[in-house]
């Protein structure tokens, strides 16, 4: 077999099979939450003050882990139940990063690089900071423009459902018969299977692109560019994350495959992708007006670029490489 083809297959399969268990876990968790969790519970536990509610919204993923695609749907429902827009945006942006499945998958992907805890801490920290600051900016816009920032599908207090009521709501408490165990398991399986197929498609695409990139990009050249022109690499990795549309439960394995890339470039990829990518921008149009989408896109892009640039500067000043070993 051609050595180039063999290297491609080995890289592709390694990324795919290392990420697969976390996709399965994430899909099952999403199915269980969708079936059993009343969404009104979230609105009851959040404080009424702006900053605490935004900060709590940014860490809701620790309790309600969802990938970025699932969070968009949940957030629309929460908006319609009256949850503040700023809090929803914080959850939307940080939830795909700050949740137990993604935290563990990030550590696992970088464990052999000897920087697993380092990557987890920086990814969660930058994700939290970016989400909170963006949510506060969105709140200022909301005070000025109100619900005109939202599409009619996401208006608070809207009573007409676009689809069947979410299975997580306590429908039996409203006089409807309690679902049987078989029906609950069937709903969980259907949700998990849908999420698994949807996520795996993007994972396979990302694994292919990462494997191709490793064939045509010399590791020494990547290391040199990331050392000499870090801002170019950071911007390039942010663009790559937006184009690849990877799930946050699997993107760490793709980032880890860029072995000789500086940690700042990997961070840009891992923080930016779950907040901004092509599929998310298309999904946002179902909830947000263009003005709000531009606000979120601009705030996230500027912050991730600046924060990861500062990380590179700190590592350079202290003589840290951020490379495996």
Brief digest:
The chain is mainly α and 325 residues long.
Notable features of this structure?
325 residues; mainly alpha
Task: Count every helix, treating DSSP H or I runs of 4 or more residues as helices.
Answer: 14
Helix amount? 55-70%
The number of strands is: 0
Topology order in helix (H) and strand (E) letters = HHHHHHHHHHHHHH
Taken together, the total number of domains comes to 1
Give the radius of gyration: 20 Å
Mean of residue pLDDT? Answer: 80
The main β sheet shows up as: none
| Large-scale geometry | globular
Helix-strand category: mainly alpha
Ranges with pLDDT <50 over ≥5 residues? 159-176
- Terminal CA distance: 31 Å
- Taken as a percent bin, the fraction of beta residues is under 5%
Can you walk me through this structure?
By secondary structure, this protein is mainly alpha-helical. The chain has one domain (3-318). It has 14 helices and no strands. The chain has helices at 3-36, 40-45, 50-58, 68-80, 85-94, 100-110, 116-145, 181-216, 219-228, 230-244, 251-256, 263-272, 278-284, 290-318. It is globular, with a radius of gyration of 20 Å.
